[in-house]
Design goal:
single chain, 3 strands, mainly alpha
Length: 471
């Protein structure tokens, strides 16, 4: 094993440990936002070998955020990909471990991607930047689907780059067979659709354009592979309407609209809660707000400083254009969605983290003179760059990051301490009644209802369900 690979592996393992620590200490291994409650509920259902359960006799008295009662059945609104993966953790009694494993795997793949595109130094820098990212750290300890989507995006990138670089002369010497690259890319992109459909659409745009360009140019070696990647992706994506049909009887029904009728993608009346519906101007304004609000959540105090230099370095590499395109593609597709996301940083763009981390790392290497350049860099550039980057990373880790994580402590006043007395009592079949106007009033105790068919505890929720505009 090369020295750089050993360091990369150590950083990946550190990332997994950080995820476990964040989950245990900051989030207390319980859900804190509506999405997490619903996803964990779905994971428990799947762990029991089902996809839905009969609705209780009084559904309104046993409300779980984003869990729908429809025609006598209860099911979550989310696609099946992530709850199915999380159900493996539920079966093991540790759902929090799933994102910890994915965090470590994603960091390793970021290193591999940076090393493949440029060199191991850039790969290590990118991995270090990702590990120190406040957004990465905050999301790694949650039960949300972004870490799985990030991992799948990286798998697609690595497989696609190898596949499209392939030519017949490489057949004998390439360590990875072509059929394996095709299958891996297709399965990963198809599974991404089952995890986060709109994100998958954004991620797929650069690959689709690149594949179409290669087909137009009749690049014969990868041509069959590209078509097969698309075919595998579509076959797996077909499971999404199948899932919707199994839950609602209608393969074209967006399950989100069963909770909020206006929760749809696109522009027009009846989409979103703004008067007149969602439109392009509102979508662009929302995106600008998300990006500004999360400006420091990327890598702390220097989120965007090195990106222009990295763009200069990567634009000379064919595969670099593919990497650079993912971030603007995600920003573009989420203009179509009326909801913003700033609580954990601009998480709707999280799957572009490898693009931003590697571009920033390439920028650091370019400024420091570690990349091949026409003229020999001045001696002062390397020590000055090392000093600047080290200072900025330390400022992030020791000043910004602790303050940012402190904002997430006891989020929405949800903590294990509030349900400790019930746990210590060891009650079975207890009925707890709370006169509440919003789900956050009983959110702490809601975790205890996840025993599904034979729920040990129930909570009564009264009042109208109000949309949360920025989660």
């Amino acid at each position: 094993m090369r020295r750089s690979q050993g360091i990369a592996l150590a950083l990946a393992m550190a990332g997994g440990a950080v995820s476990i620590w964040i989950s245990a200490i900051l989030y207390e291994r319980i859900p804190h936002i509506e999405d997490e409650f619903a996803i964990l509920w779905e994971a428990h259902v799947m762990a029991a070998g089902e996809i839905a359960i009969p609705s209780p006799e009084e559904p309104g008295a046993f409300s779980v955020p984003f869990v729908i009662d429809f025609e006598g059945m209860r099911f979550g609104k989310y696609p099946p990909g992530w709850p199915a993966a999380l159900s493996l953790g539920v079966r093991a009694g540790a759902p929090w471990i799933v994102n910890a494993i994915l965090s470590a795997a994603a960091l390793w793949l970021i290193y591999r991607l940076g090393a493949k595109l440029l060199n191991p130094t850039v790969g290590l820098l990118a991995e270090l930047l990702a590990l120190s990212s406040p957004m990465f750290i905050m999301l790694s300890g949650t039960l949300l689907s972004h870490m799985f989507a990030l991992f799948l995006t990286l798998v697609v990138l690595l497989a696609w780059i190898d596949l499209t670089r392939w030519n017949d002369e490489d057949e004998a010497g390439n360590p990875v067979p072509r059929w394996m690259l095709v299958t891996t890319a297709g399965l990963a992109l198809g599974l991404l659709i089952l995890v986060r459909p709109l994100t998958a659409f954004g991620v797929a745009i650069p690959f689709g354009l690149h594949g179409a360009l290669l087909l137009v140019r009749r690049a014969l070696a990868p041509e069959k592979g590209i078509i097969m990647v698309g075919g595998i992706t579509l076959l797996l994506a077909a499971l999404l309407p199948t899932w919707q049909a199994a839950q609602s009887g209608d393969p074209s029904l967006n399950l989100y609209t069963l909770w909020w009728e206006y929760d749809r993608v696109g522009f027009g009346a009846g989409i979103g809660i703004s008067p007149g519906g969602h439109n392009l101007l509102r979508g662009m304004g929302k995106s600008v707000w998300d990006l500004r609000a999360g400006l420091h959540d990327l890598f702390g105090s220097f989120s965007w400083i090195f990106l222009p230099f990295g763009w200069t370095a990567l634009k000379k590499i064919k595969s670099g254009w593919l990497l650079l395109s993912i971030f603007p593609a995600l920003v573009f597709v989420y203009v179509l969605y009326w909801v913003g996301a700033t609580l954990f940083g601009p998480r709707y763009y999280f799957e572009s983290l490898p693009s931003l981390a590697i571009t920033s790392a390439a920028g650091i290497a370019f400024v420091g003179g570690w990349l091949a350049q026409k003229t020999k860099p001045a001696r002062w550039r390397k020590p000055l760059t090392v000093g600047l980057v080290s200072t900025l990373v330390l400022l992030n880790v020791h000043i910004y990051l602790p303050a940012r994580l402190g904002m997430m402590q006891n989020l929405y006043n949800i903590s294990k301490g509030r349900m400790q007395s019930l746990e210590e009592a060891g009650l079975e079949g207890a009925l707890v009644i709370i006169d509440a106007g919003h789900w956050t009033d009983y959110g702490t105790l809601l975790t205890l209802t996840l025993l599904l068919k034979r729920m040990a505890s129930f909570w009564l929720c009264r009042g109208e369900q109000q949309p949360i505009m920025s989660l």
